[in-house]
Each structure stands twice: as C-alpha cells, then as structure tokens.
Amino acid sequence: PVLPATGHTRKRIRRRIRELRSQVVRDPDPQAVEHHMKDIYSHIETHVDESIDQLFELVRQPSISAQKLGFDRAPGLVMELLKRNGFEAEIVPVPNDGLPTVYGYMPASSQKVDPQSAPTLLFYCHYDVQPVDPLELWDTDPFEPTRVGDRLYGRGMSDDKGNIGARLASIRAF
C-alpha cells in the first residue's frame, strides 16, 4: 500500500530534490558533450550487429504470459542477457502462481561512490508478449526474427523486447 507522506517525509523529499538539483551540471561544455556524443554514436554504429543479435535472441524465446508459454526459459534468458551486459541480475519469484520478475542492478560508477549520493536510473520493461493468433496472418514465424530491408519483424520486436534491446545497447554505449 502507498501511504500518504507525512510533513516530515515531504520535507525530506524536498531536501533531497534540492540536493540532487545542485549536483546537476547546468551548462556543460558544448565541445566536450559533442566529443562524448561522437564516441557514443561510434560505439552504436560499430556494435549494431551485436545489439540486433541480442534482440533476436530475445525475440526467438516465446514468452506469452496469457498462455504461460515459454516461462520455463524466458526469465533465465533475460537474466543472462542482463549479466552479459554488466548487470547483477536475479529471478524474483512472484506469489500466487504469478510469472517471475527479473531484476537487474548496475552501479552508477565503477569507482567507489556513496550509493546514497549516486544517481539512480530506473528502467521498467516487460518481456512477455501477446499471443500470435491468428497465426495465418503472419508472413513469417513470429518467433523467428526476420529482416526485410531495414525493418525487423518478430513477436515482441517493438513491444517490449525491442525496448529491452535498445536500452541494453544504450547502456553499453555509455
């Protein structure tokens, strides 16, 4: 349950927001930002095939929650992909016959940083997909990723396995 914030809690939250705002760099050096962004774009370009391969690996694994199909392997695959990309990861069982959650964590810096003052970036993604029916409307196997020109097709390619792949690629680039 979510409890209403007390006056003391609201004050703590406001103080923390002020502290965080004071840490934000207001006017970064444009040349430094441009140089850094060039490095990031270069990394993305030189690793695009690796990123697509990871996405295809996710798409190949069925994970239809409405039918509880593929959840004997899908959580393990997501956990393994997170670990391959530098995360600590674990599968969290859900009570009442729910499907497992996969939790990943990565420190903000490889340097020793106080966790209380380190930035937090939270991603929420789901790795389940909708049923593929009616199957006859598919031109290809929904769980066999396919390239047609510059487009990628497969169940979950955009919702939401594509978002997982894009976020992992971004994190690797940074």
Structure write-up:
41% of the residues lie in helices and 9% in strands. It has helices at 7-23, 30-46, 48-60, 74-84, 161-173; strands spanning 88-92, 101-105, 146-148, 151-153. The strands form two sheets. A two-stranded antiparallel sheet has the order 1-2. A two-stranded antiparallel sheet has the order 3-4. A hairpin with an 8-residue loop joins strand 1 and strand 2. The radius of gyration is 20 Å and the shape is globular. 14% of the residues are buried. Residues 1-6 have low confidence and may be disordered.
Describe the secondary structure blueprint for this structure.
Elements: H1 7-23, H2 30-46, H3 48-60, H4 74-84, E1 88-92, E2 101-105, E3 146-148, E4 151-153, H5 161-173
Decide which structural class fits the backbone: mainly alpha
Which H/E pattern describes the elements? HHHHEEEEH
Span from first to last CA? 36 Å
Task: Tell me about the largest β-sheet.
Answer: 2 strands, antiparallel
The tally of beta strands, per DSSP, is 4
Detail the poorly predicted runs.
Answer: 1-6
User: Helical proportion?
Assistant: 40-55%
Q: How confident is the prediction overall: mean pLDDT?
A: 85
Number of helices: 5
Strand neighbour order, sheet with most strands = 1-2
- Backbone CA Rg: 20 Å
Taken from the alpha-carbon principal axes, the silhouette is globular
Report the portion of residues in β strands: 5-15%
